[in-house]
Automatic annotation (TrEMBL), chain A:
Pfam families: BPD_transp_1. The chain crosses the membrane at residues 21-42, 73-92, 104-128, 148-173, 213-235, 261-279, 316-338, 365-390, 402-422, 428-446, 487-515, 535-555. It is a multi-pass membrane protein. GO terms for biological process: transmembrane transport. Keywords: Cell inner membrane, Cell membrane, Membrane, Transmembrane, Transmembrane helix, Transport. Residues 69-280, 366-554 form the ABC transmembrane type-1 domain. This is Iron ABC transporter permease. GO terms for cellular component: plasma membrane.
UniProtKB/TrEMBL annotation, chain B:
CDD domains: ABC_Carb_Solutes_like. One of its GO terms (molecular function) is ABC-type ferric iron transporter activity. Keywords: ATP-binding, Cell membrane, Ion transport, Iron, Iron transport, Membrane, Nucleotide-binding, Transport. This is ABC transporter ATP-binding protein. Coiled coil: none annotated. InterPro entries: AAA+_ATPase (IPR003593), ABC_SmlMolc_Importer (IPR050093), ABC_transporter-like_ATP-bd (IPR003439), ABC_transporter-like_CS (IPR017871), ABC_transpr_FbpC (IPR015853), Mo/tungstate-bd_C_term_dom (IPR008995), P-loop_NTPase (IPR027417). It comes from the Bacteria. Residues 25-265 form the ABC transporter domain.
Length: 566, 391
């Protein structure tokens, strides 16, 4: 960045003290991010002051360890294949063919934020529960089956992998479609002009040009699925599938506790994910390099598929159904008094909602989740905005990047384990407190907050700021009237993302929330394990609606703030 | 090159003006470097300028020669490494005295190449902002903003947002915003490079009119020689972070001190040879024989020098004009229609064999035919003799 901007930003507040505050903040956040991990590593590698691998010996001999390894491998490999295929195919269909549906292309990237895992999972559970699942009832009727259960069960690997892949596919979609957008479609046209068939072009040109993007997205999904907890917990448990993150959770929550084994596994997970993250960074860099420089041709990128168009559109419709149908089922189920009640208007009632709201624990959980989510989102955005602004100004971003993006490389189960090791006992004694949850949310979602803050800061136009100075505006006025209104929309978008992630968080919540601080994710697990599925559905719907209301209200406030600061 | 001579010229000027006059911007020996890929890039190598009230100084030069850097150093958006800058008699930057005033405390305003209108403010709010910053009363701001909008023909657009305006309208908002606070000095960084040709001319006239009305000292950056000539009362040609020549546009066009300035100001034909001075004029021994012209900077006898003339200084005639020098037999190679006149490329016969080509303007209907022989005459009072230099 130019020295001019440095000059101007240095003067926001007195130079020295601003630098000192940024350094202090960086140290504080660095402590929050790195200390738990270091403590966790220390605890599993150092016994009585000497280096030791005994914790891992214990882990390898733990009951169920080898079947956990196998389950994890099947789950991760299966999810990577299915989600990458789904997302990659959607990306190709949307970016390169006339099967594209604009409205859906816009919706796909926000699905992971808008459709929380818990909503999707319980939607599938109500659709496919063996006796009372709506889809199963419908299928039995359509196929005139005489049985009272089946034909489809989701208590198995294929279903677990499919549901996870539906949720992760948008990640692959975003990475691959970005690479397709950047690659000039003229490359493909050149191939067609030179006599290659459509399919030959696809195999020989389109696929190779997106190879690095596909690799990058496959690694991304591998990272996500190694750390995934919610899917294997709710869908895998009834099928006796135990993946690594569930194993860690059980180590903490079962009786007798096996903390050391759980922590050793968390360390192992972290190490495996580090390797994947490094590979992913390389692949992503290569994918960016593969962007073809020079002027893009204006040629239409969308090639006609002829009759195949409807086949491809059929797949797009199938995917959208796989996302939306469970949500519909979820809402329906939340209005029915018990699992398996006939779907009819007479049976609809708000009883589940009433009991969720009158039950002290679940009511408190809702309130807690919303306040913790909102607070964590504000703090995470503040931290990210300040540090990223400082990084662009100082031109030294190594330390700042490290602190902000390290949490992306730690699976949430491992992060929660590390927080327990570091902060649960003395000297902090934070176990079960709101502070611990909020700190953990902030840490876990710093990468998402930083991505939004980076986007917001990079949109900040240098000349608009300079124009304010040459209009004789003081640094303070410039910050309030020019910089803040420009940053606010981008930072607000980041706030919404972190807020949604925080409210719907399960993995960390279930390990860190204590009896006095119930939160939605943890209460959902409790309800599920005690068989109160209708209550979980009602809570999931309530959470979703309430988050939308909160976002709408917050949006109003923010736009009013932006308006008054004019 | 001529740079040292120019600097001393300016120092003399400064001495003349030193007694508290109407000079609004004075920069002396400003040095500015940027960190580049391999070592430092020196964007300004000790530049000195001064601009009195009511003048429009145009900084002209090819892209990358340091025009924007000079402007931004004056505005306070860049901090130079050396030299001194004063605005309205107040030192705003001095390397010796460790003075640096931030932009908002200099009496300067600026029009940006990108307009830099704030997208979240209406036209009226954009224009009124500099007054609000100066703590002017609300009612008064509203009144001044309306006057200003009327002055730039934007009277009815006060409630629009910048993205609802055309490029030319946006540019006029930027102008109004720069002028409304009545700053002593207004800086323009290529303000017209983003609007189309017709609008460009219109806004250029508006800038001239606004200057007549508000009487500010202006510094205007452009790389377009025609635009520079149209708007400048003082033209400053820059070359690689140095000032090549300063003067009225006509002076720079007629009497350039270097081949760089000569060619930057318009088309030229060059013939090079060895110089000998004869009572005030310089004679050159060239491949086309003896060429006599006026020296516009110091020429040493026996040095290589270049005779330079512009198309309209040369005359292609049927009969020998009778002058005893600067007359050459020539063949017309190419005629092109340029609107007001014809442009003719002629070939001069040389002693060495390699022909010399010259570009000459001829009135329409002068009956010149391609392939025919004529005489080319360039009066010695017009032709400039310039040092060979690096170009
Ligand atoms: N912020 C900057 N960082 C590094 N180099 C710069 C910067 N701004 C300008 N320069 C360099 O300084 C020189 C002069 O630039 P500039 O003043 O913008 O030229 P002009 O406006 O005449 O086109 C160029 O070589 C340019 O590359
Ligand atoms: Mg420039």
């Amino acid at each position: 960045m130019s020295s001019a901007t440095t000059l101007i930003v240095e003067r926001l507040g007195s130079r020295r003290s601003a630098h000192r505050w940024v350094t202090l903040l960086l140290i504080a956040v660095g402590f929050l991010v790195l200390y738990p991990v270091v403590r966790m590593l220390w605890r599993s590698f150092v016994v009585d002051g000497a280096f030791s691998l005994s914790a891992f010996g214990q882990l390898f001999e733990a009951r169920g360890f080898s079947s956990m390894l196998a389950d994890t491998a099947i789950y991760v490999i299966g999810t990577v294949i299915v989600a990458t295929l789904m997302g990659g195919f959607l990306a190709w269909a949307m970016e390169r063919t006339d099967a594209r549906i604009n409205a859906i292309a816009g919706v796909l990237p926000v699905i992971p934020i808008l459709v929380p895992a818990i909503g999707l999972i319980f939607g599938y559970l109500v659709l496919f529960s063996p006796e009372s699942g709506y889809a199963n009832i419908l299928l039995r009727w359509l196929l005139s089956l005489e049985t009272t259960s089946g034909p489809i069960s989701i208590a198995n690997f294929p279903a677990l992998i499919f549901v996870t892949a539906v949720s992760f596919a948008p990640m692959a979609y975003m990475i691959v479609s970005a690479s397709l957008r950047n690659a000039d479609p003229a490359l493909e046209e050149a191939s067609r002009v030179n006599g290659a068939s459509r399919w030959r072009t696809f195999w020989r040109v389109t696929l190779p040009t997106s190879r690095t993007a596909i690799l990058s997205s496959a690694l991304m999904i591998a990272i996500l699925s190694v750390g995934a907890f919610t899917f294997p917990l709710f869908i895998g448990t009834p099928a006796n599938i135990t993946t690594a993150s569930v194993f860690v959770y059980r180590g903490f929550s079962s009786w007798p506790p096996q903390q050391d084994v759980a922590i050793a596994l968390a360390v192992l997970l972290t190490i495996v994910v580090q390797i994947a993250v490094l590979a992913q960074l390389r692949a992503a860099r290569a994918a960016n390099r593969a962007v073809i420089a020079g002027k893009r041709s204006s040629a239409s990128a969308l090639q006609p598929l002829g009759p195949w168009r409807w086949v491809v559109r059929g797949f797009i419709a199938f995917y959208m159904t796989a996302v939306l149908l469970p949500l519909l089922a979820l809402i329906t189920a939340s209005l029915l008094p018990y699992r398996g009640a006939t779907v009819s208007f007479d049976n609809f009632s708000l009883d589940n909602y009433r009991s969720v709201l009158s039950d002290a624990t679940s009511r408190e959980a809702l309130i807690n989740s919303f306040s913790f989510g909102a607070i964590a989102a504000v703090l995470a955005m503040l931290i990210a905005a300040v540090l990223i602004y400082a990084a662009t100004v100082r031109q030294r971003s190594r330390g700042i990047d490290l602190v902000l993006y390290v949490p992306a490389a730690i699976p949430n189960t491992a992060l929660a384990a590390a927080f327990i090791v570091a902060f649960a006992g003395p000297p902090f004694n934070l176990y079960g407190t709101a502070a611990l949850l909020i700190l953990a949310y902030i840490t876990a979602f710093l990468p998402q907050a930083s991505a939004s803050a980076t986007a917001a800061v990079s949109q900040l136009n240098k000349e608009l700021v300079e124009a304010s100075y040459v209009s004789a505006a003081s640094p303070l006025r410039t910050a309030r009237r020019i910089i803040a209104p420009q940053l606010l929309p981008g930072l607000f978008a980041g706030w919404v993302i972190v807020f949604f992630l925080g409210v719907n968080e399960v993995t960390i919540s279930v390990l860190l929330a204590g009896l006095d601080t119930p939160v939605v994710g943890q209460v959902a697990v409790e309800f599920f394990e005690s068989g109160r599925v209708p209550h979980v559905t009602a809570m999931a719907v309530l959470t979703f609606i309430a988050s939308l209301v909160v976002v709408a209200l917050a949006y109003k406030t923010v736009s009013r703030a932006a308006a008054t600061s004019r | 090159m001529g740079a040292t001579a120019v600097t001393s010229d300016i120092t003399a000027d400064m001495a003349r003006n030193a007694d508290g006059d109407d000079v609004k911007v004075r920069a002396s020996n400003v040095i500015k470097t940027y960190p580049g890929k391999d070592g430092l890039v020196t964007a300004l190598k000790g530049v000195s300028v001064e601009i009195p009230q009511g003048e429009m100084a145009v900084l002209l030069g090819p892209s990358g020669c340091g025009k924007t850097t000079l402007l931004r150093s004056i505005a306070g958006l860049e901090r130079p490494e050396g030299g001194e800058i004063s605005v309205s008699g107040r030192t705003v930057y001095s390397s010796d005295h460790k003075v640096y005033l931030p932009p908002e405390r200099r009496a300067v305003s600026m029009v940006f190449q990108s307009y830099a209108l704030w997208p979240h403010m209406t036209v009226a709010q954009n224009i009124g902002y500099p007054l609000a910053c100066r703590k002017v009363a609300k009612a008064q701001i509203a009144e001044r903003v309306q006057q200003m909008m009327d002055a730039v023909h934007l009277g009815k657009y006060g409630h629009r947002y910048p993205n609802q305006l055309s490029g030319g309208q946006q540019q006029r908002v930027a102008l109004a915003r720069a002028i409304i606070a009545d700053a002593d000095v207004i800086l323009f960084d290529e303000p017209l490079s983003n609007v189309d040709a017709r609008v460009r001319e219109e806004i250029r006239k508006q800038i001239i009119a606004l200057q007549a009305e508000f009487n500010f000292a202006g510094i205007y950056v452009t790389h377009d020689q025609v635009e520079a000539g149209a708007i400048a009362t003082k033209l400053i040609v820059m070359n690689h972070g140095e000032i090549a020549q300063v003067g009225r546009p006509q002076e720079l066009y007629d009497n350039p001190v270097s081949r760089y300035v000569a060619s930057f100001m318009g088309t030229t034909t060059e013939v090079s040879g060895t110089a000998t001075s004869i009572d005030g004029m310089v004679a050159l021994d060239t491949a086309v024989g003896r060429v006599i012209g006026k020296p516009t900077s110091a020429i040493v006898d026996g040095d290589r020098a270049v005779g330079v003339f512009r198309p309209e200084w040369g005359h292609v005639v049927h009969e020998h004009p009778g002058a005893d020098h600067n007359v050459w037999p020539c063949v017309v190679k190419l005629k092109s229609f340029m609107g007001a006149h014809m442009e003719v490329v002629v070939e001069l016969r040389t002693s060495s064999g390699a022909p010399v080509e010259a570009t000459v303007a001829a009135p329409r209907g002068s009956g010149l035919r391609e392939g025919q022989c004529y005489y080319l005459h360039v009066p010695s009072a017009d032709l400039c003799v310039l040092p060979e230099g690096e170009q």
